[in-house]
Amino acid sequence: MEKVGILVVSYGSREAAIIDALNRSLNYNVKLFVADRQLNPFNKKRSRKHVVIPDLNNKDICKFAETNEDEIDFVIVGPEKPIIAGLRDLIEQKTKIPVLCPRQKYAIEASKIEQRLLFKEIAPNANPRFQIFNPKDYKNNIDVRKDVYLWLDQLENRAVIKPDKPSAGKGVGVWGDHFTAREELFEHFMSNFQYGSVIIEEKIDGEESSFQVFSDGEHIIPLPSVRDYKRAFNKDKGPNTGGMGSYKDVQDYLPFLTAKDRDDELSLANKIFQKWKEKIGDKTALRGVPLYLAFMHSKSGIKILENNSRPGDPEIINILPLLKDDFVDVCYQMLNRTLTKIRFGKAASVLTYKVPPNYGGYMTVFPHFVDKTAVNTPVDLSKANSLVNKYSDQLRVYPGSMEIRDSKIFALSSRAVAILGISDSIEEAREISLEGVGAISGGALWNRTDIASKQHILNSKRTMELLRSNK
Ligand code: AMP
Ligand code: GLY
């Protein structure tokens, strides 16, 4: 069997799922090298060489690649930080190893302004109305406030604040959720504006979906749509998180959308990709996952909330286990510009994340729900892993922000472990995911209990019906 050496740059559960998909290859003898944010038990067990680089800095990742250059055939990068910081450009300069992610210049996740300007040019109808505020244009806060309020008049206050770059300020803020008065909105705005440019855009009502593509730079293969649960607590309350769970339906589109919505998504993504590719002229720049569009389905069609330049965490985890093609072959097709088709099994999948007590501010809001005696105790994954054997291909347990310490497994500060159920319906997939969740003990971990619940999906359906009837 052909041997292949693959370096995976890993942040959390998303990369455990990538490693699992590579490791299940039937066509190749896979040797894995992992540059990891922590001593992840899943990744460690499956890798030939594993190195921990807690801040995932490109210099150290590249050094690891250089040291093992003879054995590595290509690199896959999951997290945004190294991609945005130009890991592909660096490794491809220093070694002969190709890297599977967009080039730095086209990793537009780095700038919300760049994204808005690109979409304004090539898909204006999908952009919410927006205005850019640049600190360099202002001498004092009085003028800033005047301009912000003028724009709020036009938006009738229904605004979303977005720092251009991931910043030390308060980040994205949504009218009605994070503030209900102009003063509060302005305070949120200023907390970001002190660090750099900020967008104020129209708040869009609707239902969200995540749309990802695999690309070889010339072609895109759209992946099935996934619904992410961004908010920390049940009923979509609490602060935004990286995503507390997600689901996909048996077909490629979500239960609250229609086949026509999916067609609209496909034509929008194709239009964006074709026009963007023409502008660039570099046939390999956009390989990997250059488009991961967060859509809002509104009464006036699809709007783009943002674009990411990497696979979604958790969204890609809902999809990778359903691949019918060998994932190593798919990676080679992306690298060789021969990606024309990917086959997926028809199944639903539901993912629930278990997270540590402080994540999303849970311990502060619900202190009485946290078993204080269990905080920072080891997490026992053994029962869940036995269930994986029982369910065979229908359950996956992917540790993320977890490390091996003294031969035990401990949760760190971010999303700890993803539990994915796969079945013929969302309901069954959800039951399997929740059975896996119930089998994990220790560490005072908690999870949202309404991921893919009947009620939550019904609410999404009702919202869409209402929006469509009030057109
Ligand atoms: P982001 O940090 O850009 O992923 O945004 C976080 C969340 O803010 C999204 O998942 C949406 O729920 C919400 N959001 C962002 N932009 C908008 C918008 N223009 N209208 C309504 N909600 C938005
Ligand atoms: N689940 C949201 C993200 O990957 O950005």
Can you characterise this structure?
This protein has 471 residues and is of the alpha+beta class. It has 14 helices and 22 strands. A five-stranded parallel sheet has the order 3-2-1-4-5, sandwiched between helices. A five-stranded antiparallel sheet has the order 12-15-18-22-19. A four-stranded antiparallel sheet has the order 6-9-7-8, with helices on both faces. β10 (207-215) and β11 form a beta hairpin. α3 runs parallel beside α5 and α12 runs antiparallel to α13 (426-438). The model has no long low-confidence stretch (mean pLDDT 96).
Overall domain count = 4
Measured on Cα atoms, how large is the radius of gyration? 22 Å
Could you tell me the number of beta strands? 22
CATH H level, superfamily name of the largest domain: ATP-grasp fold, B domain
Distance between the termini: 58 Å
Count of separate DSSP helical elements? 14
The small-molecule ligands in this entry are: adenosine monophosphate, glycine
Assigned CATH class of the largest domain = Alpha Beta
Tell me the β content. Answer: 15-25%
Unreliable runs:
none
User: What is the helix fraction of residues, given as a range?
Assistant: 25-40%
Average pLDDT taken over every residue: 96
At the fold tier of CATH, the topology name of the largest domain is D-amino Acid Aminotransferase, Chain A, domain 1
Strand order of the largest sheet: 3-2-1-4-5
Label the structural class: alpha+beta
The oligomeric state of the chains shown is single chain
| Shape, per Cα inertia axes | globular
Give the biggest sheet.
Answer: 5 strands, parallel
Q: Per CATH, which architecture of the largest domain?
A: 2-Layer Sandwich
